[in-house]
Amino acid sequence: xxxxxTSAIRCLERGCPQGSESGPIFWIxxxxxxxxxxxxxxxxxxxxxxxxxxVCSQGRDLSATFLxxxxxLNLASDWSKGFKLDFNPDKTRVTAIEKRNVFxxxxxxxxxxxxxxxxxxxxxxxxxLDTKFSWKQLLSYISEKCDKLQRGLNWIARNTFGxxxxxxxxxxxxxxxxxxxxxSRVWGEALKRKKNSKYLRPIQRxxxxxxxxxxxxxxxxxxxxxxxxxxxxxxxxxxxxLRENLSASSISNYDCILSxxxxxxxQRGMPSILYNLVTRxxxxxxxxxxxxxxxxxxxxxxxxxxxxxxxNPRTFNSEFVMNAQFL
Length: 327
Prior knowledge:
The chain is α+β, with helices and mostly antiparallel strands. It has helices spanning about 25-40, 60-80, 135-160, 165-180, 185, 195, 200-210, 220-225, 230-250, 285-305, and strands at about 1-5, 5, 45-50, 50-55, 95, 110, 115, 115-120, 120-125, 125-130, 255-260, 265, 265-270, 270-275, 320-325. A 3-stranded antiparallel beta sheet has the order 14-11-15, covered by helices on one side. A two-stranded antiparallel ribbon has the order 1-2. The protein has a two-stranded antiparallel sheet with strand order 3-4. The longest helix has 25 residues, at about 135-160. The protein is globular and about 65 Å long. About 15% of the residues are buried. This is Reverse transcriptase domain-containing protein.
């Protein structure tokens, strides 16, 4: 290690150097041995991200579930001693996912002889997980954080660029909305319940009132209509449905008819009709047609770029038919 004109050499006997370019590779090499052993355990699933390891255990009853989890902890403890590493029991948390109200006083997990703390909610990769997957704590947490984030961004913008409607709109699109949408593919289904959407709509309404320079007495629907932003819960549910349908769709047996009369952000070529190549008479929904066309356009652009052709969306000015099988 070198700091200015002073340098020092020290032999590293355990772990891996942090802050170096080779550190992550060394850590993956070390931890991969543990992950391989944990994956061989029955009824356990291992999720690793950076330096954190999440052990998911399941069973028919709580006693079997805790038994499988304790077996994984014992294996990790024995492995760490061989590599001269120590897992910190104080930073290890246990959360039991159970729909029923169950008392966990009779169950206890240990790591290196130290009892682990049982918690009702746990934050993993920025997402709060509760014992029943109700997501109420997460939605309440997002609402509080959005309030603080909005005040901080408003203060910065006021002292730099000045505050106006365009700045408020930019703050919402670039700051508030991405923060709310983080991890929404995991917890977004909870917004189908109206009692959960009430946590997100008020924070969205407050900043949209600043965007439209409106009074507090304006209704929710009016705020959404004037600002042009849909309710955040509807946006999340729409994104989930869109990605699920797009990932499950296949365009190998479809013809896509692209029409110049439909446009999206000055890019012509949105679908008008989509037919099945097998039946030729089967019409499908407009949403599925849009998904097919988007996927087809992605493959078309990739094909053109791979061929060295300059792609210009504005040159698509005439109606034409494409067969996805030729891409």
